[in-house]
Amino acid sequence: MYIENIRKAFSSLSRTEKEKLAKETKRILLGKGKISNSVRPAEIEEYIDNFTKGKETKIKYFEGFIEALDTMYPDGAKNAFFSGSFNKGKNWRDLMLKLTNDIPVAKLEKYYENDLVIKELKSLFIALVEGCITEDEEITIQRLQALNDLIKK
C-alpha cells in the first residue's frame, strides 16, 4: 500500500519535476558516496520510471528518491508515503528559485556539492529574510533595502 502510494505520487510528477527529482537524487547520492559522478540524471530518471512501473529498483536509488522528495516538497516523503501526493505549496525553495534563477554562481560553483557551505548559505538566507519581513509591506521593503545597502558597502 505505502509503496504504491509513492508510485502514485511519482506518476503525478510533471516531466520537469521528474528531472528535478533525478538531479536532486544524484546530488544526495553523490554527497553520500553511493554513486559516482558519471551517473547521469537521465539514468536516474529511468530508475524513477522503472520504480513507478513496479520494476526492480536498487535500494540506494529508492533511498535517494525519498530523501530528495523532502528537499523538494514540504514533508514530501511523508506525504507521498501516506497519501500518494505532494504538498506543492510555496516554500523557501520556491522563493530561492524565483530570486536566483537568472544569477550566475561562478564564485560558488566549487562549493555546489559542499553540504556545509549549502547549509550555511541556507541558514544565512533564512535569517536575513526572517529578520526583515514584517506584516507591514513598507517596513519590510525599508528593512530589505537597508540590509542590502549595508551588505553592498
What can you see in these coordinates?
With about 150 residues, this protein is mainly α. The chain folds into 2 domains: about 1-85; about 100-150, no CATH class. The protein has helices spanning about 1-10, 15-30, 40-50, 60-70, 75-85, 90-100, 115-130, 135-150. The protein starts with a helix and ends with a helix. The model has no long low-confidence stretch (mean pLDDT about 85).
Structural class: mainly alpha
Largest sheet: none
Give the distance, in angstroms, between the N- and C-terminal Cα atoms: 57 Å
Per DSSP, the total helix count is: 8
Global geometry: globular
Order of helices and strands: HHHHHHHH
Number of strands: 0
Specify Rg, calculated over alpha carbons. Answer: 18 Å
Number of domains: 2
Strand content: under 5%
The helix content, as a percent range, equals: 55-70%
- Uncertain spans: none
Mean pLDDT: 87
Question: What is the topological layout?
Answer:
Layout: H1 2-11, H2 15-31, H3 41-52, H4 59-72, H5 76-83, H6 92-100, H7 115-132, H8 137-152
Helix pairs in contact: 1-3, 1-5, 2-3, 2-4, 4-5, 7-8
Give a concise summary:
The chain is 68% helix and 0% strand.
Essential attributes:
single chain; 153 residues; mainly alpha; 2 domains; 68% helix
